[in-house]
Amino acid sequence: MAYDAIVVGGGCMGISTVLELQQRSPHARYLLFEGSHETTSSKGLRKIIRACYHDPQYATLATRAQLMWETKYPYCNFYTRTGWVQEVDGAKYKPFHKEEKAIGLDVLSDRMQTLESPRFDREKELWFDESIGAADASLALENVAREAEKWGVERRKEDIAMLVIEDEICKGVQCLDGSQIFASTVVLAAGAWTPEILRRSNVALPPDSFYVTATATATLMLSDDEFKRFKSMPIIVTDQGAQSTLRELLSALVSNMT
To answer: Which CATH architecture has domain 2-75+136-200?
Structure first.
């Protein structure tokens, strides 16, 4: 069976790509291999949506993506603009996003709707970026996939064995049962599984072409009253990320809930 394109990967990149392709060419045939893994990065509860990156090219793409989250169906149904506050070393920090501005603890307290001043290092500076938001990741992912299916995308919740390479050209994919499916174009968006798929397909790339990163996060279950109180609270991060400040974040949240 021949398709116009096969997309391998059931994360945000793969599913959003196949939806965009199908909407641009409604009469074309697209096949999506979502994979069998239920616990992946894209299927987390909440994801921060931001465009403040040091790499200008990446920041440009992230800005376009953020606009889609805010305005385009079905993404906008699962996105909330929250803003975030960053605690940094004032002597070393250099703002790199146009939306950033320095604020005082009084502004942060007002944003958090609390009478008790948040407990932060008084020698640090607070920088607020109102453009940043958060998405209901796993919920958005499934709904975008269903939207793609409505447009005609064929979904398969299974893994592939390898790519089908002939004369150094990718012609399709080989399934785990040995069968082969061909397409004019193959989009490989398998996240952390991408290097292994390429290795099994005998596609040689430089050793530093891929690397996997992660950030530790924590979630708290809130009551309805607590949610109403904290729903407009900005995300709080520091120049060192969650690694050094998880305890302080939880302490600040618990302090303001009691």
So the answer is: 3-Layer(bba) Sandwich (3.50)
